[in-house]
Amino acid sequence: MSLPGAISSAAAMADGLPVQIIEEGVKEYPKPENITFTYGTAGVRTKGAVLESVCYRIALISALRSKRLGGKTVGLMVTASHNPEEDNGLKAVDSRGEMLEASWEAYCTQAVNASTAQELVSVLENLISANKINLSTPASVVYAHDTRPTSTMLIKAVAAGLATMGAHITDAGLKTTPQLHYLVKALNTQGTEDAYGEPTEEGYYKKLSSAYLKLVADKTSATATPPLIVDCANGVGAPALLSLLKHIPEKHLTIKAMRTDTKTPGVLNNGCGADYVKSNQRLPAGYEKDISYVPGQWMCSFDGDADRIVYYYLRGPPGQKDSFRLLDGDKIASLAADYISELVKKAGIELQVGCVQTAYANGSSTKYLKQRVPVTCTPTGVKYLHHAAERYDIGVYFEANGHGTVLFSTSAQRAFKETSPASPAAEDALHQLTALAELINQTVGDALSDMLLVEVILRARQWGPEAWDGAYEDLPNKLLKVNVKDRFIFKTEDAERRLVSPPGLQEKIDEVVGKYKDARSFVRPSGTEDCVRVYAETSLAGELDSLAKAVAKLVQDSDA
Ligand code: G16
C-alpha cells in the first residue's frame, strides 16, 4: 500500500474522518490542474493517465457508501468500457449490484473536483451528515478492472483510498463489468434465502452455464453450424468467454472467438467491438478477409468490458452492397420481450411484462413492442433504464447500443416456483421462466449472459437470421459525434428528446426535421466521451445523411 498511514480498523474512525491520512492521499494522488471531472452516464470517464486522484477519492466515497448501507459490500469497476484504449474510468456499484444511488453522484463530482484536502474533507463531511453515516460501521468494497494498460496504476489508487478508510478490501482482479456486479450481489446475499450465486468468478460461470444447459438440453442448435463468431473487442470479454465455454460442452454451443488479443497495445475496441459495429453499421474491420463467408452464419460483438452485445449476419458475401444486417439492442429487446410474454401466457400466470428503451430506440422497434407490451422511454444510461424496468413484474430493458438485461421481480420469481401448472405445457413454461431468471444477469447488461439468452430463444424458435430480423424493418438511422468546446451547455428534457439549451437550437432542429418525411432527430451531450451525439432517423434512406449532417451543422454553428 503506498500510503503508510493507512488506518487498520473502522473503530479507529469513530471520532471522525482520518483527516491527516486523507491529506497524505491528496498529496500522493494530486488532482490535475485545469481538468473538471464529472460523474456522468457511467461514472467518471476520461484519459486514463489523469484518473488516479479520481480513483483515490471515489474509493473514499465508496467506503462511506458501504458504511451507509450497514457494512454491505459495494463495488468499484475500473474500466472505460466502449471508449478507446487510452481512456479509463471508474464506476461505483451499489450493494444489490446496481449502479450507485443517483443522489450520491453529485458528491462524487464535488469530491473529485475539490482543489484541496480541506475542501475534499468538507465534501465528505457534508455527505456523512446528510446521510447520517455512522463512521464506526465497518466498510467492505470489492474492486475489479479491465485490460486497459492504465488499469494497473488506477487500482493502486483505489486500494489506497479504501485503506485510508479502513475498509475491508477484496481485489477481484481482471473481470468483466457484469462479473463485478454479479460478485457484489452474490457477496451480499450469500447464505440467505435470496443467495444469488457463489461469490466467485467460477460461481458466475457455473450459474450461467447450468441454467443454459437446463434450457437447451433437449433442443438442437440454431447457431451451432456454422459456429457463432464472437468479436471480443480485444478486451476482457475474451478470457471470460473462453472460461465460460469450459462449462458448456461444444455440442451445446459452438463458438469461434475473434479479436481476442488483450496484450498488443492499441487494439482494444479498435476497429472492432459492439460500439464500432453499431455506430458504423458494418462488420469489424478486417473481417472481410478474416472470416470465410457461410450463408446463415451468426455473428456478434461484445464491447471492451463485455457489458454490451450486438448481433449481425450477412445476406450475401462480405463487401456486397447491403449484405450486412444488424440485430442491435432493440432487436434483442423485441426477441426477449416477445418470448418471455409468450412463456408467461403459457404458464397461465398474471404478470406484467414491460420494456424500457431510450430515445435511440429505432422507431420501428418501439412500434413493434408497443403492439405487444407496455413501453417506457428513459434518458440514456443503464441506471435510468434499470430503475424503470423494476416497475414491471418482468422488465426487459435494452439500449439500442446493445446494453441491457431482463429483471424479474421477487413476486414473479415466486410465482414461477409456486404456481401449480394447469397442463404439461404450463409446467414447461414455468421451468423455463425459472431457468431464464437464473441465466440472465439481473444486475446489469451482460454480453455473455445476453448471448446465452439469445441462443436459448433462437433454439426454442428454431430461427435463422432472417426469421429474427424479419420481426420488423429498422428505419434508416445514423449516429454522429460532434466535437464542441463545452458539451455541458447542451441540456435536455423529455427523456433527452428535446434540447432546452443552448436557447433557440431545438427550434432550429425542429425546422430542419420538418423538411423530411416522417423524420426524427435529437441532440444530447455524451456522458462518457467529450462530444455531443446527434441521432437522426428517416423513413427514406436517401434522406438520412442530409438530415444527420444538417442537424450536426446546427450543433457546430451553435458552438461558434
Ligand atoms: C455507457 C452506459 C450506457 C450508455 C453508454 C453511452 O455504456 O452504461 O448506458 O448508453 O455509456 O453513453 P453516452 O451516450 O452518454 O456516452 P458503456 O458500455 O460505455 O459502459
Automatic annotation (TrEMBL):
Residues 479-553 form the Alpha-D-phosphohexomutase C-terminal domain. It holds the Pfam family PGM_PMM_IV. Signal peptide: none annotated. One of its GO terms (molecular function) is phosphoacetylglucosamine mutase activity. Substrate binds at E399, A400, N401, R524, P525, S526, G527, T528, R533. Keywords: Isomerase, Magnesium, Metal-binding, Phosphoprotein. The keyword Methyltransferase does not apply. The keyword Manganese does not apply. Binds 1 Mg(2+) ion per subunit. InterPro entries: A-D-PHexomutase_a/b/a-I (IPR005844), A-D-PHexomutase_a/b/a-I/II/III (IPR016055), A-D-PHexomutase_C (IPR005843), A-D-PHexomutase_C_sf (IPR036900), A-D-PHexomutase_CS (IPR016066), AMG1_II (IPR049023), AMG1_III (IPR049022), PAGM (IPR016657). GO terms for biological process: carbohydrate metabolic process; UDP-N-acetylglucosamine biosynthetic process. Pathway: Nucleotide-sugar biosynthesis; UDP-N-acetyl-alpha-D-glucosamine biosynthesis; N-acetyl-alpha-D-glucosamine 1-phosphate from alpha-D-glucosamine 6-phosphate (route I): step 2/2. Residues 112-191 form the Alpha-D-phosphohexomutase alpha/beta/alpha domain. Its EC number is 5.4.2.3. Mg(2+) binds at S81, D303, D305, D307. Its cofactor is Mg(2+). Residues 200-310, 328-463 form the Phosphoacetylglucosamine mutase AMG1 domain. It comes from the Eukaryota. It catalyses: N-acetyl-alpha-D-glucosamine 1-phosphate = N-acetyl-D-glucosamine 6-phosphate. The active site is at S81 (phosphoserine intermediate). CDD domains: PGM3 (cd03086). Belongs to the phosphohexose mutase family. Catalyzes the conversion of GlcNAc-6-P into GlcNAc-1-P during the synthesis of uridine diphosphate/UDP-GlcNAc, which is a biosynthetic precursor of chitin and also supplies the amino sugars for N-linked oligosaccharides of glycoproteins. This is Phosphoacetylglucosamine mutase.
